[in-house]
Each structure stands twice: as C-alpha cells, then as structure tokens.
Amino acid sequence: MFDWRWDFVAEIMPRLLWATGNTLMAAGIGYVIALVLGLFLALGQRGSNRVLTTILREGIEFIRSTPLILQIFFVFYVGPQFGLVLSPWVAGMIAIGLHYSCYLSEVYRGGIESVPRGQWEAATALNMTRWQTYKQVIIPQSLPFALAGMGNYLVGIFKDTPMLSVIGVYELVHTANAIGSENYRFLEPYTLVGFIFLAISLPTAALVRLFEGRVRSKMGMN
Amino acid sequence: MTLLEFVAQYWPRLLTGTANTVALFFLSAALGIAIALVMALMKLSSYRALRWTAISYIEIFRGTSLLVQLYWVFFVMPLFGFTIEKFTAGYLAVGMNIGAYGAELVRGAILSTPRGQWEAALAINMSPAKRMWRIILPQALVNMLPAWGNLLIELLKGTALVSLISVADLMFEAKQINGSTFLSAQAFGTALIIYYVLARFILTPFMRWAERAMARKIGKA
Amino acid sequence: MQNLVGYPLELTGEDTPMVRFTNVRKSYGPLVVLDDLNLDVAEGEMVSIIGPSGSGKTTVLRMLMTLETINGGCIYVDGKPLTHMPKNDKLVLANTRYLRERRADIGMCFQHFNLFPHMTALQNCMEGPVQVLGLSKTEARERSEELLELVGMIDKKDQHPSRLSGGQQQRVAIARALAMRPKVMLFDEVTSALDPEVIGEVTNVIRALVSQHKLTMLMVTHQMGFARDISDRVCFFYGGKIEEQGPPADLFGNPQKERTQKFLSAVSEAI
C-alpha cells in the first residue's frame, strides 16, 4: 500500500531527537515565563485599582481569543518595522510565554476563588495579614484546584511549540519540514513527530494526574 | 500608514480572508460536534471494541499537535491514495482535533447528569436510546454549553493554522500583505482585531444567548 | 467615611465594660440590619443573643470580629475603640494596621467551623500563634496541645478536618480560637450545623470554659435551653434592635414584651 522505510527512519532519527530537545527547551522556557507572569496577572486582577484591573482583564481576553500563530508573527515581524530585531527564539518565547500566562492567570484566579469565604474570615479572626492569609491559607488550598489546569497547560504549551516553526525555531516540526523537503519523503518524518508528541504528552498528562492526587491526599482534601 | 488607510486599501482581501475563516469555522465546528457526540457515546459504550476505538482516537488527537495533524492529513494522506484538496484538509484536521476535545466534554456532561434521572427514565420503561436522547442529552447539553463556548474559540483560533498549507484564510491574507508591503504592525494587527471581534463580540454573545435559551427550554431559568 | 464627634477616645474608670457598642448602625443599601445598637458586656460576662433569623444577631458578632464594617456609631473593646482610632483628638475610621492591633483581643468560632482543610488539627491551632503572635513552634505546640486536651481532641491532633466529625471539627475550632489568648470569645451559631447527637460535646466544652475561665463571651444561638443554663444575660433581638434583655431566669421565665413571648412560645412549640 505504501512503503515505510526503516533505514530512512534510522537515518533521520538523530536529527529528530536533537529537535525534540529544542522542543522541550522551548516548552520549558515558555512555561516558566507563563507560570511567573501568570501569577502577577492573577494577583494584579485582584487588586483594588479599578483601571488596572480592567486593562488586565481586557488584555487577557484579547490574547486568549486570538490565534497564537498570529501573535508569534506579530511579535517577530513588528519589531523590525520599528528597528527592534528579535531572534526567532526570543520572539517565540515572548509570544508563547505571554499567551500561556493569560491562561495560567485564569487558572490561578479560579483556584483562589474556589477557596470558600469562610477561610478568609477564619484567617481574619486569627488576625493574619493579607500576605499571611495568601501564603498560609489561600494559596495552599487553591493549589490542588489549580494543579489540573496548570498540568493541562504544560501539555498544551508543549503541543503548541510547533507553531514556532513558522518563524524558524528549529523544533520538531521545523526539522520534519526540512527533512521532508530535502528527501521528498513526508511519511516517516511527520509520523515520527506524531509518535514523539504522543510519547511525551501522554505520560506527562498521566504524571500530572498522579501528582495532583498526591497533593490532594497529602493536604487531606480527599 | 495609519491603520485606517491600511484597511481602506486592503479591505477586499481582508474580507475574503475573513469569509474563508468563517466558512472554515462552520465546517470544522459541524464536523467536530458530530465526532464529539459519536466518540463520547462510543467511549461510554459497553462494547470494548467501541470503547477502545474512541479512547485511541481521543488520546491520539489530544496527545499530538494540531499542526502535526494538519501536515499529516495534507502531506501523508495522499500517500495512502487519498488526495485531499487543501481547504478540505484544513477543516478536516481542525474538526477532527476539536472533536477529540469535545468528546471529553460530552462524556463528562453525560456522566454528571444525576443518577436519579437515569433511574426515573428506566422506571417509566424508556429504551436505552430514548433515555439518552430524550432525558440525558438535553440536560447534559445545558451543562456543557459554557465549556463548548471556550472550545469553539479554540477552534476559531485553530483555523488560523490552515494558512500554513496555503488556504487563503484571514491569517494567510495578513501574511501575504505583510510579505509584499512589510507593514507588519498594520497587517497582523488588523487580523488580530478581526479575530478578536469574531470571538468576543459574535461567538461569545451567541453562546451566552444559546446557554440562556437552552436553560429556559429545560426549565432551569 | 465618618469621623465621630463627641465620642470618648478611651473609656476609663472602674466600670469600663469589656465590650461596648455605642449607637452602632449597619445597613446594606436600604436594608437596615442594626439600628442604633447600644450594648455593654462586662469583663467575664457570658451574653447570649437570641432572636428570629434576620434580626441582626450574627451581624453583631461579625462587626465585633471586624468582618463587617459599620455605618454609624463606634465599638469599644477593653476600653479602646475598635472600629475607629484616635487621631488629633478625634475618632477616625480605623486603618488596617490599627485593626490588626485591636483584633488581637477577639476570637471567633463559626457556624461552619472554617478549619483550614490542608492542615491537621494541631497545625490549625498552631498556625495563629506561630504566624501571627510569633511564638516558637515548641511554645505554640505546647499551648495547642493543652487546649486540644481541654476540648478532648488530643488523640485526634494529627488528623485533617476532613477525617473529623462536625462536633470534633468545632471543638478544634474552639481550641484554635483560644490559642490566640483572646479577651473576648465569639460563638456564632456554633451548633447549628451539627447533627443533634454531637451538639452535646460542643456545648460541654463551652460550659467548661464558662465555669473555669474568666473569658468574656458573646454567643448567638438557637438552643434556648443551653442559653438559659450558662448565660449571665440574654438579649432578644428583633428587627435590628434589642427588644428585651435580662438574666435568663427573667427573660425565659417572665418575658415582658409581647414579641419575646411570641418568639419563645413559637420556639418551645417547635421542640
């Protein structure tokens, strides 16, 4: 029916594995940016400054409802128009980190809001400061709720890294494209890339679920 | 060049691009919803073969990238003898991808319908198909509509990827205009705004309206 | 908000009450919850607050715990203003820092316990002393274990709240509040969320507190028998005001006002 060539697989595998490293690095860096920036966005939205809150909300909505691929192009191409040239990696990390920080800020916000009001009141009755209340009472309790979302977006950011290929980041899909056009063979590279994604994202998702369960039972929340 | 001048000059191309994006959206949404329903019911089935087919489908499409799936459909499927035109390949890939995510929403909503509803339907001797169609699904639909709102926005965003196989959607037009004029801020900025308007001011209000209408229909509001 | 004129900056003298509400008013928009409330609670006194729902009784406690702001008047605790602070010989609305300082005098137990679910019973009790009072872990542990002993929960000290019954959770919550060494303890319907058979274990703890410690206590309750047994004074709230108050024997035995009589007879019929 079609010819799958194992010798070709063996030939291209080293290049794909090297590209897998780049994909993982892109996902990792992007995720760290998103985790940290997302927390600031979430706490900024809970502040008392109405103007800031509104700007943050609308900005987050804007980024969440427009395509990441378009944002990647925007960040990469708009800079040079104004004399600021960003390398593909820098532009890609800014775009993907910012995009996912908006999703994570919603995860954090949902987690914080899932903590019952009585917990805030009990903390007040114990005369805790706002910071102590967040640190000791609210964040530990919102973590189990937030973990599921955080894990989903870890896998999500990993699966979205192929979009970085469009501005020339040498991740998996970019490499598969290159292999395909050099050899006029697309079956093996694209299929292998698919398997590599499955081989990483399915176990990661399972590990995240396991970890979530651990945290929940450790905190006595089952 | 200001944004207004830019739009004045390039609006015909932006408009056809938007029209193609909207067409892709509807086709892939229809496909995605159908797949979601079928896969959810299969995953809940008591036949192991059906269950495992659905599980494999869902895990494969949720475990890999939409872009990889799109390239696979467009570049690899022809090797199996299915040559697919690029527009079709575009909405097939996006629809199949969304269908996998949607299946989990449908399944979750069906499972969260209170057990008493099943029992009551059984007690008046409804057939299993009737129970699902008349009693469970309407209630599940109301529960899952908000999540579908988010998923459809993801779908709209996902359609932008078809520009990478040269389907002339909004994203593609923006890229072409950028390539010939180097007015990146205007080209990509306008496209971003159009996507935002579609998602925030058309799709979201429509879904809210649908949620209210459905809730009223089953007597929840 | 409002600066107060004509209110003393401090209460002095022999008969200074532990808690004083002076012309306190609370409303949510047009809905007046408390209307010009005046109430003194002496040091070591146990005051029960009863009344129909919506009469503002819980609001009294929540304002005293500073969980609600007030719209008029002033609350004093231990002679010093709580809701306001002295500034240039006037009383102005208290800021966060002042509130934190004054709040240390007050402890509260809630209807739904509000234990921290991610901490064990012992950790719940140690949390405030360590984080807020700055005690060493050893001191805090000693103090908490002593209190858990007092409420009969020492053998469950390493359990999370989810593993405890409602009555057990409420006893831990009482220990947690006491660990902060408050001068005033507030009990807000602490038995209302409990199954009937475990109410006794909580009321017995409160009974022990009343007989053995010189704590000032305010309690909102629906358990008339319990209020009658242990209170020094009972206040009947109706429509945001104190309709009638007095020693339990008088208020329950010989109520003067018609509304009090109606309420008490309705409650006794329900039993």
From TrEMBL, chain A:
<keyword id="KW-0029">Amino-acid transport</keyword>
<dbReference type="InterPro" id="IPR035906">
    <property type="entry name" value="MetI-like_sf"/>
</dbReference>
<comment type="similarity">
    <text>Belongs to the binding-protein-dependent transport system permease family. HisMQ subfamily.</text>
</comment>
<dbReference type="InterPro" id="IPR010065">
    <property type="entry name" value="AA_ABC_transptr_permease_3TM"/>
</dbReference>
<keyword id="KW-1133">Transmembrane helix</keyword>
<feature type="transmembrane region" description="Helical">
    <location>
        <begin position="16"/>
        <end position="41"/>
    </location>
</feature>
<dbReference type="InterPro" id="IPR043429">
    <property type="entry name" value="ArtM/GltK/GlnP/TcyL/YhdX-like"/>
</dbReference>
<protein>
    <submittedName>
        <fullName>Ectoine/hydroxyectoine ABC transporter permease subunit EhuD</fullName>
    </submittedName>
</protein>
<feature type="transmembrane region" description="Helical">
    <location>
        <begin position="62"/>
        <end position="79"/>
    </location>
</feature>
<feature type="transmembrane region" description="Helical">
    <location>
        <begin position="190"/>
        <end position="211"/>
    </location>
</feature>
<keyword id="KW-1003">Cell membrane</keyword>
<keyword id="KW-0813">Transport</keyword>
<feature type="domain" description="ABC transmembrane type-1">
    <location>
        <begin position="20"/>
        <end position="208"/>
    </location>
</feature>
<dbReference type="InterPro" id="IPR000515">
    <property type="entry name" value="MetI-like"/>
</dbReference>
<keyword id="KW-0472">Membrane</keyword>
<dbReference type="InterPro" id="IPR014341">
    <property type="entry name" value="Ectoine_EhuD"/>
</dbReference>
<dbReference type="Pfam" id="PF00528">
    <property type="entry name" value="BPD_transp_1"/>
</dbReference>
<feature type="transmembrane region" description="Helical">
    <location>
        <begin position="137"/>
        <end position="155"/>
    </location>
</feature>
<keyword id="KW-0812">Transmembrane</keyword>
UniProtKB/TrEMBL annotation, chain B:
<protein>
    <submittedName>
        <fullName>Ectoine/hydroxyectoine ABC transporter permease subunit EhuC</fullName>
    </submittedName>
</protein>
<feature type="transmembrane region" description="Helical">
    <location>
        <begin position="20"/>
        <end position="42"/>
    </location>
</feature>
<feature type="transmembrane region" description="Helical">
    <location>
        <begin position="88"/>
        <end position="106"/>
    </location>
</feature>
<dbReference type="InterPro" id="IPR000515">
    <property type="entry name" value="MetI-like"/>
</dbReference>
<keyword id="KW-1133">Transmembrane helix</keyword>
<keyword id="KW-0813">Transport</keyword>
<feature type="domain" description="ABC transmembrane type-1">
    <location>
        <begin position="18"/>
        <end position="203"/>
    </location>
</feature>
<keyword id="KW-0812">Transmembrane</keyword>
<dbReference type="InterPro" id="IPR014342">
    <property type="entry name" value="Ectoine_EhuC"/>
</dbReference>
<dbReference type="InterPro" id="IPR010065">
    <property type="entry name" value="AA_ABC_transptr_permease_3TM"/>
</dbReference>
<dbReference type="InterPro" id="IPR043429">
    <property type="entry name" value="ArtM/GltK/GlnP/TcyL/YhdX-like"/>
</dbReference>
<dbReference type="Pfam" id="PF00528">
    <property type="entry name" value="BPD_transp_1"/>
</dbReference>
<feature type="transmembrane region" description="Helical">
    <location>
        <begin position="185"/>
        <end position="207"/>
    </location>
</feature>
<feature type="transmembrane region" description="Helical">
    <location>
        <begin position="140"/>
        <end position="165"/>
    </location>
</feature>
<dbReference type="InterPro" id="IPR035906">
    <property type="entry name" value="MetI-like_sf"/>
</dbReference>
<keyword id="KW-0029">Amino-acid transport</keyword>
<comment type="similarity">
    <text>Belongs to the binding-protein-dependent transport system permease family. HisMQ subfamily.</text>
</comment>
<keyword id="KW-0472">Membrane</keyword>
<feature type="transmembrane region" description="Helical">
    <location>
        <begin position="63"/>
        <end position="82"/>
    </location>
</feature>
<keyword id="KW-1003">Cell membrane</keyword>
